[in-house]
Task: structure prediction
Amino acid sequence: MLILETPKRTPVSDENMIPLINVVFLLLIFFMVAGQIQHSDPQKIDPPDSISEQILQKQNIAKLLVTETSILYLDGKFIAAQDLSEQLRLMVTQAGDSKSFTVQVKVDAQLDVAQLQTTLRSIKAAGLLRISLITQKMKDQ
Result:
């Protein structure tokens, strides 16, 4: 009679999975650190080019977006042009200090200059002294 021996199974070890787990966690940490999650603009805006690399402050600010067709968004919410000064006055009053309060204006590069001047006059009428025009870094050609 022929007796066949079944091969002995070695216990399965999870040690081979440890390098894979390490790589996955390193990738996870990399993307958490490298990636930035930020709110997108309500409308796509292509700001004008600039050679300045100055970084703007992040406290006591209001962000104003002006589209190519002169539609205004104040801190992500639609606002009528005639209500802009009054709304900015309220924001300055809530902040308490008009000298440190800044309006960051992000304008589409295709916006007519006359429309931009009208918007800037409305901001000035609200009593604001600090206005920053947001631009994008000029691409090398």
Summary: The chain has a mean pLDDT of 81. The CA atoms of residues 15 and 21 lie 10 Å apart. The longest strand covers residues 61-66. The first helix runs from residue 18 to 34.
